[in-house]
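From: lab user (bench 3)
To: helpdesk
Subject: output format question, protein + zinc ion

Hello, I'm new to running complex predictions and I'm not sure whether the block I got back is the full result or only part of it. Here's what I submitted:
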Amino acid sequence: MLNPHLPLDQKITGDIYTSDEAMKNLSKLCDEFGSRFGGTKGERLAAEFIQSKLEDYGLDNVHTENVEYLGWTRGKASLEIITPIMKSIPCISLPHSPPVDLEAEIINLEDGAPADFDSKSDNIKGKIVLVTSVFSPKDIKRWVHRKEKYGRSLLADAKGFIFINHYRGYGPATGGIGFEGQAGPIPGISISLEDGEFIKRLLERQGLIKIRIKTSDSLSHMISWNIIGDLPGKVFPKEVVMLGSHYDGHDISQGAVDPASGVIAVLEAARVLAKYGGALARTIRFAFWGVEEIGLLGSKSYVKEHFDDLKNIRFYLNMDAAGNGLPKDINLHGWPELNATFERYQKEMRLDFAIGQNFHDASDHYPLLLAGIITGGIEAVRATSTGRGYGHTKYDTFDKVNQTDVRAAAALGARLALRIASEDVWPAKQRNQAAITNLLNQPDQKDLNDFNQKISAYFEKLT
Ligand SMILES: [Zn+2]
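Helpdesk reply: Thanks, we reran it on our side. This is the complete output you should expect:
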């Protein structure tokens, strides 16, 4: 198959593969600015840095947009077993967990499958739920996210929530438990696999464990920023292809793979497309989202603030953690009408990426998808994983990012953006409300959608 973009592909790819710019940017983001968690100085420095890079690369309309939200600052947390023995277990709070001091019995809900919550629902009330971080408990096809396990605990009137990392040797894993920016009403804390196994063995032997949880986290009004920059189209400037990644990591880590490896890949795509892209038919927009880790807050704010212009977005490619070590596939979030187009790209580009058709709600494409926008992501379609590994632990550090993976992600994002922006006829149309409802009620998603409605009503009552 002929490649109509060959000269540009060669320039873009050649530049990316002979430059150390991306890894220099990674070093800034991780080693200098740290976690970039919402509310930290590093977050602000990272936002300024990304903005200045986009300006240096020659993008247009570079600016930040404020994101107002309920922020969260970590305090000390303790977990004491008080019955039948006295023992202190190291723990951390999960973002958007409230400050508390409480005692209760523990109930083990294993990997937190919806069925476990259903079968034990009469027993959960007033207790502290213990679950692991396993993605797909009991071979459920879809991902059962931490927020769902926490939410099902709320619906069953639990008093607290303990999240056990299911990986050995990585300590506790973090992750937000709030809902749409609201804080959780019961404490969520996280412990290591080793401590979790200890508690389970004790529970098995003794039948009953009582613990005391004390946390001192704080909640306050904060402002974050989305950073936006454009390469304006020359023929249809209003029509937009978007690439994006969030730039905040979790406060306990450098957030190097998730998300910084994606941030530097998007920056790299911006750099080479600005340099070689020439006369683009349509605008290519680069978005760096704030505060994703505590509820996709930056991308949600963008959807709200730009609602009337969303119809002009032809495609959004999410590149959250895109420079990770997994295969560089393209996951289209339920757009089979684009299969043929992406198969053609794949042949044209001489790449072997797989094309998936699954969607999930755990990154910044989701608010856009819920607004009808056509989205996809650089995601591993071929890999089957049981979880995040060192992701969301303090071990997500600079050394985990491989330069070749970042280059592959950057080149893939840039080459796809170029193609999507120049495609004369785009074979997919944005979803209207009926089509969105339909998508969320597909058989494999329906129980999740039902849960989402219940938990949404639950939080509505809290306010
Ligand atoms: Zn991420």
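A quick orientation on your result: The chain has two domains: 6-72+221-431, 75-216. Let us know if anything else is unclear.
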